[in-house]
Amino acid sequence: MALVRLPMRRLASAGVRCSSSFNPFQDYRDSTPPLPKGDPSKDSRSGVFVSDYAKYMLATYARPPLVFVKGEGSFLHDLRGRKYLDFTAGIAVNSLGHSNAELAALLSDQAKTLWHASNLYHNCWTGPLCKKLVKKTVESGAMHDAASVFLCNSGTEANEAAIKFSRKVGKALDPSGEKYEVVSFHGSFHGRTMGSLSATPNPKYQEPFTPMVPGFRYGTYNNLEGIDNLVTEKTCGVIVEPIQGEGGVNVASDEFLIALANRCRQVGAVLIYDEIQCGLSRTGHLWAHGHLPKEAHPDILTTAKALGNGFPIGAAIVNGHVSEKIQIGDHGTTFGGNVLACRVAYHAVDLLSNPELQRTVHDRSRFLKRQLKSLQKKFPEDITEIRGRGLILGMQLTRDPVPIVDAARQRGLLVLTCGTNTLRFVPPLTISEPEIATGVTIVKEAILATK
């Protein structure tokens, strides 16, 4: 039977039209220069745009009335043409800056070649990306026995995979099924799907969706004394962030992670490091645990966010102890490992593992810390601590940070909150010192404006 070919001109004649000429902004662009400070009003063209479309979007986020249309480097531009310095990097995603030219060119080229062919077949980029992640990880001094990779679409999917793999290892070690418990820690954030949510002991996130997946236990972060009672023979997996991002930029002590790893080895539990936010050179090292001795390295390392610099992709890197327990059919994904994502991530890993970029992160971190500590000296009644590593830093406040975030945004700076009364700074790793200085000046103005 001959193949039926239907060229685009025949699709058009058959009534199939491409809507690429549609421009949602064309009726909303505002030629009026934006005011020096302030959000768009409800009756502005940005406000009307938000009103016209928000009713069709499920309300899972509370958003200010900004509509971003362009990004470049450390900046975003809104519908009004106003420029915002981005200290959020899309929540630690755009580590190589917005609209990175090299990645954009690769994405465009691949989009004209092949988008998706399913995991039923091999493609040219999934395997090479997996190899690169393993090789770069081992070369960096982190996860010395990294062996293979499961690719997916997001951080929560990477953690779901890690939890499933831990359960499978537990079943292999104890066929009775008694080795099924997963341990995580207060202050952690591992995702929104039911398994990763069950590992996130925050009532705000969990209570609307209870009951959680059974078998999860929670401990106190950095509490060495409680490890032996927490991690037992029934534990199949322990998931921990070397630096808690959403929880308040809390840094795990080396002693805690080493003791936790030793206990996991004693009872045969899989150790999972969630480096979705703190990994991929955000600390100035490829992985945040890379300075630890080998005995404290994880069995599974999860990553996402910066891996695609904004193109959705996630990964769980596993060692041989885990991979030998996983069989064909144990897990899967429709879009994970697709060609577009893998080609972008392959190049992003090269850029993010560049020693020159990592030295820059260390330099920028020292500069930003000095700037933030100068604010602490100026406002000792408002700021109690500056903590974190690299370019994942937290400023502990004595009051609600939301008004400061709002005032900063109205002055052209985007910054995040986390934990309890904490401002979080996760700018692009490519940010310059003058940009940092400008951002900190705006934070100072925002603190003064909200006193």
Structure overview:
This protein is of the alpha/beta class and 451 residues long. Among the domains are: 108-353, Type I PLP-dependent aspartate aminotransferase-like (Major domain) (Aspartate Aminotransferase, domain 2); 355-384. It is 35% helix and 17% strand. It has helices spanning 8-13, 45-54, 89-92, 101-111, 126-139, 155-173, 194-198, 203-206, 227-230, 254-267, 320-323, 339-352, 355-378, 402-410, 433-449; strands spanning 68-72, 75-78, 83-86, 146-152, 181-185, 216-219, 235-240, 243-244, 250-251, 270-274, 300-303, 314-319, 383-389, 392-397, 413-414, 416-418, 422-425. The strands form 4 sheets. The protein has a 7-stranded mixed beta sheet with strand order 4-12-11-10-7-5-6, sandwiched between helices. Strands 1-2-3-15 form a 4-stranded mixed beta sheet. Helix 4 (101-111) packs antiparallel against helix 12. The chain is globular and about 70 Å long. The model is unreliable at 1-15 (pLDDT under 50).
Provide a brief overview of the structure.
This protein has 451 residues and is an alpha/beta fold. It is built from 15 helices and 17 strands.
**Judging from the principal axes of the Cα atoms, what is the shape?**
globular
Low-confidence stretches: 1-15
Name the beta content range: 15-25%
Helical content band:
25-40%
CATH architecture classification of the domain at 108-353:
3-Layer(aba) Sandwich
The CATH topology name of the domain at 108-353 reads Aspartate Aminotransferase, domain 2
Mean pLDDT: 94
Strand tally is 17
- State the helix count: 15
Can you list the strand order of the major beta sheet?
A: 4-12-11-10-7-5-6
What structural class do helix, strand and pairing data support?
A: alpha/beta
Give a short account of the largest sheet: 7 strands, mixed
Give the C-alpha Rg: 23 Å
The first-to-last residue Cα distance is 77 Å
CATH class of the domain at 108-353: Alpha Beta
- The CATH superfamily of the domain at 108-353 bears the name Type I PLP-dependent aspartate aminotransferase-like (Major domain)
